[in-house]
Amino acid sequence: MEVMKLPSKPRALPMPLWLQGVVELGQAAVISALLVLLPVAAVWLTGGFADRTPESAARLAGQGWLVMHGVPLVLQFPPGVAGEEPASGVLHVIPLGLVLIPLLLAWRAGRRLARASYTDQLWQALLGALVTYALIGAGIAYLSVTADASAHVVTGALVPPVSAGIGLITGAYREAGAWSRLVGVDFAAWVGRTSQHSRWAGSYAWSVLRSGFLAVLVALSLSAVLLAVAIGLNWAGIAAIYERLDGGIAGASVVTLFQLGLLPNLAVWTMSWSSGAGFALGTGSSLTPLGSAVGPLPALPIFGALPAGTLEYGYAALAIPVLAGLLAGWWFFREGENHLDEWLVLHSPRRWLTWTASTFSLAVLIGLAAGLGGAFTALVSRASVGLGRFTDLGPDPLVVGGWLALEVAVGAVLGHAVGPLLERDPSRR
Q: What is the 3-state secondary structure (H, E, C) of the chain?
């Protein structure tokens, strides 16, 4: 006679999905907070904050966590700094390099939550995670108030979940493999029920958007290379500013980490510079490929790489967005989704006319897509220190979008025109 064995331990109850979201994104908040707290603690332990108590240094770390997520801080300036009377300003910057930290941590959490959820239940985990991150942000904003700086509790609750939400959704999509599994809607089946003309129009529009995205990505990549070359050529000036700061190993490390967090912002500014739109480092200043006019700047070492005066060959940088447009036009040709050209061919026998109309229409659309993308990146890269002329730092989004749209459109015409020459069938040569 067989005897059924009972389990030696009671089975654990499954964790609710909303609680899993709390745990996953709570871990992300703790890890990102430690990455800010450790450098601040190192500077404080080495005497860098001689006038600060441990509590004050902890509040400074909390403010750093908020700034890392793009939360604006209200600064209070004593008399003599911004005038005869006390003044206030808003420090607002989205350090695109630092914001990647919480975004990637949330991306990991999104993958884990998608793995543990059914399609129609994922919203529970995401909601619990985002509410938790909002509460943590509000709590840090409340506890990090000092006489010099503070963040509103509402912005502390609303802004950090933006980067965390992007990471969660993209991570969940990466794990699910398709939006249909993520949201429970089969978009492919929905598109399949539309007419053939609608599918052609959708494919054409989607290829145009991806071409515009590619143009912005190429322009940013080439601008990042240009920025690296400028830093290398002006390393002596950058090192001299480090020496004047004299902050010790801990202080120099914190300054370097801050600059690394701003490198993507500076790459966007370099793209704005190469487009001809330029950027500002304070009200009334201007840096363009044809010349630079700036006033006194803060002692930030990276500013040692800025171009000065009139640049003899600065206009050569305008080739960067044109080259980006050329690659975008070539990529569109390789996609084979030029349904506008096919439609025009069906309605007119004049090939020279249909080719010209479709190519220039395509160039305009790709230019508009790239211009919108460039304007958005310029907008999120802007900064304000909240003091005097330094309330205007970065490029003008509308000017950048206009210049980039024009130059990418010119490059797209060239790229689409040379596409047939570059994609010939080798067997026919």
A: CCCCCCCCCCCCCCCCHHHHHHHHHHHHHHHHHHHHHHHHHHHHHCCCCCCCCHHHHHHHHHHHHHHHCCCCEEEEECCCCCCCCCEEEEEEECCCCCCHHHHHHHHHHHHHHHHCCCHHHHHHHHHHHHHHHHHHHHHHHHHCCCCCEECCHHHHHHCHHHHHHHHHHHHHHHHHCCHHHHHCCCHHHHHHCCCHHHHHHHHHHHHHHHHHHHHHHHHHHHHHHHHHHHHHHCHHHHHHHHHHHCCHHHHHHHHHHHHHHHHHHHHHHHHHHHHCCCEEECCCCEEECCEEECCCCCCCHHHHHCCCCCCCCHHHHHHHHHHHHHHHHHHHHHHCCCHHHHHHHHHCCCHHHHHHHHHHHHHHHHHHHHHHHHHHHHHHHCEECCCHHHHCEECCHHHHHHHHHHHHHHHHHHHHHHHHHHCCCHHHC
The arithmetic mean of pLDDT across residues 4-22, rounded, is: 63
Q: What is the pLDDT of residues 187-215, one digit of tens each?
A: 555 555 666 667 677 788 888 999 999 99
